[in-house]
Give the backbone structure.
Amino acid sequence: METVKKRMHQLGLPRIIIIAFIILIFIGAFLQGQDMKQLVSDSLVRFGMNLIFALAMMPAILSGIGLNMGLAIGIVCGLFGGLVSIEMGLTSWVGIACASLIALVIGSAVGVLYGRILNGVKGSEMLIGNYLGYAVVYLLCMFWFIAPFKNPAIIWPMGGDGVRSTVTLSGYYEHVLNNFLSFQIGGVTIPTGLFLFVFGICWIIRIFCKSKVGVTLQAAGDNPEYANSSGIHVNRCRIIGASLSTALGALGIVVYAQSYGFYSMYEAPLTMSFTPMAAVLLGGATMKKVSVWHAIIGTLLFQTMLTAALPVANMLLPDGNLSEVFRIIVSNGIILYALSQAGGER
Amino acid sequence: MGKNGKVRGFLGKNIVPLLFACFCAVGVYYSGTGIPTILSDLVNRFDRNALLVLSLILPVISGMGLNFGIVLGAMSGQVGLILVSIWKIQGLPAILIAMLIAMVVASFCGFLAGKMLNQTKGQEMITSMILGFFANGIYQFIFLFIAGGVIKFSSDLLLSSGIGIKNTIALDSMQYALDDIKIFGVSTKVDLFTAMMFFGALFLLYYLFRVLVKKNREKKYRIRLGISAALIVAGAVGYNLPALVMYKMMVRVPIPTYLVIIGVCILIQAFMKTKLGQDMRAVGHDRKVAASAGIRVDKVRIQAIILSTVIAALGQIIFYQNLGTMDTYYGHEKVGTYCVAAILIGGASVQKATIGQAILGTLLFHLLFNVSPLAAQNMFSNSMVGGYFRMVACYGIIAVALILHAWRSRVDRKKKSEEV
């Protein structure tokens, strides 16, 4: 009994609630006669395509910036990279490689700028990151309208100018990663390529955290005053953190889109930073501490819940979007919980 | 300070409103719309939004920054409107009962929000923003699934399945119920010049009272007396000038709502002179000093948020009685952002906000909002660009204002620590 209690305590209240909720949803789905295999397959894909966004929170938290609410800045960089690769007519592996490369380069460059701004506003990074993100997304909205892309797959079908609101990837690199070496076990499809790729990124981040730069980064985030007095450039560490986070966000949208099948342009990136934030917090991260496992567990739980809740809720109540409402409540609730746990000034 | 220094000081202090006034001027010029049309729209927009923007002032004074949580107040207002619609109450009584309900709900929400913000001192703005999103989820859950789903009732407000409130609610009987109260059958929504004369006379009486009865013989009162008199004269002249007949025909000013707005301004002004108002100012200035002076800081902060939420709730009801149809699920979502942008454009900051800034900001922000799509249509032959431009301006101004604030307070802190 004692060990059970201890384990429960280790797990933490938010995870217990969510796991109980997921079990409830799956029982519901089973009773409704939903296609369970499909449900599990979908959950796995959703987990894979969202994991990189959650990982993008890591460098930001570790370097002391906190949750990166301006992740949308990275996402628009990735969208730009993706569009350029399509404009050049690159398909399949070359296409996605090119898109990722451009996304990473632009993302890290813009991230340096973003990090510099955040260095000036220590203590309000989340709020300012959020509004900078919104402003940049709308600035890019204006840009998409006048961007000189020529490929008919990108621009509006009629009228010519400007990027269309959803750019389809079929015929370019839709499902390249998902389908690579994918196989079925008992009717459940395993997207091997996607998993190899995202777990590869996890592995790289783990190595980075143990490297010299990674350790200094964490020292700077852990206790800035102490790090400063022991000769670490705290501000530089934070810029590296912001840059990595933004670059991962940019890479994240390319991987997300190859699985989703579309690049959603214009206002779509606005809300995308909330789900990964909620995911890492759900996984057990705090405003100061995070590990790869937090990102993996959190994304798995959160995405499974969202994916499974959708068909169950739709059968329960055809009108209204119950699972969307749950997403809003759970993701903002967990961020609020984390904010209150961080504690305010006296 | 020489004349040059004075000019520079004025520019430095008012750079944001001046910049946006320039944007507005360019927008008005390129929109190609007649001034009467723009003015008529602006009068309505001000009527709709003034109270919501004014609701931001008290939390700023109490040192809690810009309260993005007025979204909670807006939701409370909508709860009131939904209830009176279900009960089929009509006209002005409906508005008044909705306001009563909204004030109760808003006080409760404000109390909870205040408690939460006391847990996260120093991060109030981000917390209030997330709180708004969270409350939005709860609100949707209640009105999409609980209403009709758990609490069964029949109403034509419900969706066809019987579960959940409709996306839009027509407030036909309530439209203009406050804007246009009929006094003995006489409309109180009057043309521009009559309104000018009315408010001119009102101000004239007030300042005459101050000068003659209260013996405030200062220069500023005499100037204001003159301005009020000039307003009456201008109104009378405009009323009879054939060249301005378009203004007289198109611009209708809803006197009762404007009186409510002026009333709230006076109340806030008077409130700041009370003990509680002074306590708020002290808490905003320095929490520790206030606490050592025996002020119960946490309680004062909660009270500031409750008042802010209640004013916002009333504001949202006034908003929808003017608009006439309620957007049940998205009407409140952007209220926080828009109002914060408006007050910042008026020249307010995270630490300082006045009634004048709120009013100026509301006017400039909504003028820009009104003209930018058409102006962009004419400048870039694409109205969507204008729509996005105003969003960039809206979010950009918030980001820049917050960056400036964070930067300044860091410099101040550094100075302080160096002095120590």
